[in-house]
Design a protein that fits this description.
Length: 248
């Protein structure tokens, strides 16, 4: 079974506990207007052990599958369509070697791909849906459900893909959610060994270990144009280049 097939199996286990109409935007269900389609990543093309980097964004603005796919008659087909949507979108944007104008999430993804290979970069999100083209917020309809579902999906993706490195590129607006998913302290803490990267400002870039084995980095969202955040991204890329060069 491929890693993508394993992901689909895990998605099915998780999503089977929900009404399919919660995910299918071809139907209109009262109370869920404003939410995007569900974001379900597939596995990267190469995913070579020792060079696997997962980049976790915040949410994908306006995420939706092509209208030509029609409606779904089973949850399995829905999952397959959304994984295919992610795979095609990743391939289309990741293959663009020319950087986009300005600072963007995909420019950062491509820069990491230049270091470890495009096929060794996984794209996942903290939130599996957006709400009206932005991050879901407390008080919005079904917020707690979306947050709980997002945590389950992201943890399953980490468990299946077993990345060597995770870059949390979520930005400050979602820091409390990330800490809720991956507690920093207390009996359920899964984050240890917090440390700086070089002489970086820890509010812009820091490193820690997740689950006792995965090296993680936290940066602000790659769309930030501030001098400090640009410098932090440059430092992280230099650090990754040095780290992976030494592992070859």
């Amino acid at each position: 079974m491929s890693l993508t097939d394993t992901l689909k199996t895990e998605y099915l286990k998780i999503l089977s506990g929900y009404d399919i109409n919660f995910f299918d935007r071809t139907t209109v269900v009262e109370g869920i207007a404003g939410y995007s389609d569900i974001f379900l990543p597939g596995a990267p093309a190469e995913w070579k052990s020792g060079r696997r980097v997962m980049i976790v964004g915040r949410e994908t603005r306006g995420w939706k599958r092509p209208a030509s796919t029609g409606s779904y008659d089973t949850l399995e087909r829905h999952i397959g369509a959304m994984v295919e949507c992610h795979t095609n979108f990743s391939a289309r944007h990741g293959s663009k070697k020319k950087q986009n104008r300005g600072e963007t999430f995909w420019n950062f993804m491509r820069s990491v791909g230049d270091i470890v290979g495009d096929g060794n970069v996984a794209w996942c999100n903290l939130f599996c849906m957006d709400f009206k083209d932005t991050m879901p917020q407390p008080g919005q309809p079904h917020y707690d459900t979306v947050k709980s579902l997002s945590a389950q999906l992201l943890k399953a993706e980490i468990n299946v893909l077993q990345p060597d490195v995770i870059i949390f590129a979520n930005g400050g607006a979602s820091v409390l959610v990330r800490r809720e998913f991956f507690p920093l302290s207390g009996p359920e803490s899964v984050c240890t060994d917090w440390r700086p990267v070089g002489k970086s400002d820890k509010t812009k870039l820091e490193c820690f270990t997740l689950y006792g084995s995965i090296d993680c980095y936290r940066i602000n969202h790659p769309s930030s144009i501030s001098r400090e955040n640009r410098a932090a991204r440059t430092l992280l890329l230099e650090h990754l280049r040095s780290t992976f060069a030494a592992s070859v």
